[in-house]
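We store sequence with structure; for instance:
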Amino acid sequence: MLNEEPDLLPVEQQTLTFYGKPVVVVRLPDGQPGVVLRFLCENLQIDTAAQTQRIRRTEAIAEDLIFAQVETEGGSQRMAVLILHAVPFWLAGVDPRRVREEMRPEILRYQREVVDVLYTWAQSSKAMKEPAGLVSVEQITKPEVPTDDAGLDAWRDYYHQMVLWIDWQRDIEVWRGSVESRLFDVPYMIFIPFHFVVHRVFLYFTT
């Protein structure tokens, strides 16, 4: 049963505003983005408990309903969270004809637009947490070879450190290549010898 699963602790929580109303989103420990169901239901004036039961009965998205500790003004609370990729399926099942007349435009608006807002947050948040193409500013030194009588743990640690050092060296070479291509691609640029640029950058990383 879903309520037997342990509550998850999000690594990130944000409150988005969609047409003046709050939509609380979280990023779970495994990196998946989710949406707190309560706020979506309150905005649409539909019953959260009833929607939770409907999701549980829907085989296609039942496993995408989890419970997490969500921070509120009154403290941390246990709330149902729907994994983002299941939100469009769930929203499509909300029948505008079964709600009050004045809420029908709001439900249609969520069905048509809110998913784009949620995916924009998910992608931008992930990009900020996982910048691509950056080289660690911390220099990784080449490890010393263990002595002949060193134990297996020492050799294991040596090879592990060697992998880290080789990866860092590779990243430096890739970065050098990208900088070199940019230098030659920029027109009317004052020429600066590439080896001078690399030398200055190397000093920055190693001092």
